Amino acid sequence: MAASKHVIKLNLDAGNASMMDLGKMLGQTGVNLVAVKRAYDEVTAGQRGDVVPVVVTVRDDRSFDLSVRTPPTAFLIRKALGGKGAATPGHASAGTLSRAALRAIAERKLPDLNTADPEVAERIIAGTARSMGVAVED
């Protein structure tokens, strides 16, 4: 019989995971929260300042595995613009994203997207930017 497990997805600050957030989401699993925090902080230390999603798989024996993802697309777009998206997308503009920034975001997100084609990835990122009220340079 296979061991049951918990699979929890979290968005945490890279290199500095909040024990409060970990406790809220992982407390019921009985996993060692300090060990999870240390492992996450060690893996994401090079990305400090970003929000880096992680999938934590906790097995019955309370051992765990971390699967680190790429930062959310909206976060990367806001970071490239240095601000927020539009309060009313479609009516107000939040800024313009350069082609170079769009390409950089697409390359970073490529491992987590449903495509291996960089041009398709750019179109996916451009769609997210438009939904945030951000224009993309032609």
Describe what this molecule looks like in 3D.
- With 138 residues, this protein is of the alpha+beta class.
- Helix content is 39%, strand content 21%.
- It contains 5 helices and 5 strands.
- The strands form 2 sheets. The chain has a 3-stranded antiparallel β-sheet, with helices on one face.
- The longest helix is centred in the C-terminal third of the chain and has 14 residues, at 118-131.
- It is elongated, with a radius of gyration of 18 Å.
- The mean pLDDT is 86.
List the SSEs and their pairings.
Layout: E1 5-13, H1 19-26, H2 33-44, E2 51-59, E3 64-68, H3 73-81, E4 95-97, H4 99-109, H5 118-131, E5 134-136
Write the CATH fold name of the largest domain. Answer: Ribosomal protein L11, N-terminal domain
Secondary-structure content class: alpha+beta
**What portion of residues is helical?**
25-40%
Distance between the termini: 56 Å
